[in-house]
Amino acid sequence: MPGTENAFGATSTGPSSRRDLLGFSDTRSFLLAFCLGLLFSQGCAMLQRAPVPTQPGTAKPTIKKSPPMQAKLPQTGKASWYGPQHQGKRTASGEIFDQALFTAAHPTLPFGTKIKVTNLANGKSVEVKINDRGPFIGNRIIDLSLAAAKALEMTQTGTATVRIEPSSDP
Fold first, then answer.
1. 57 domain-assigned
2. Of 169, 168, 170, 135, whose CA–CA distance to 149 is shortest?
3. Global pTM?
């Protein structure tokens, strides 16, 4: 195999081009691989990282979480209740569920919020504390503990139309 002379006058007996050295047999394969390499390197370069503090004692960047959407009170809608099947299990707030307490699950109200719930069919009211998330069925607006449902006299029907509003006790 005769040698080839490069631009500097040196003779080489190896592959005749860089493409041959990289294992590409035609120009299209080389261009495709080259373009894919560029796309990959640009994608990696565009990853954004949080800035690293450069001075000792500077605070680390914090990620701000948006607060949960808060429901506008008062609301009127269907309430349901839950009890024995959840007794002793952890609620979304971290508390242990006790069906004998006046608590409730609401999709968006902050945990610890106290609200007044009134059964519109009989006028009975009860104050409950939000400690869980739900309800997850249909168009219901609140899930009450068994104790709260009994006080509203809705355990027989399972659901009731209620009005929820801020409690007079903060």
1. no
2. 135
3. 0.59
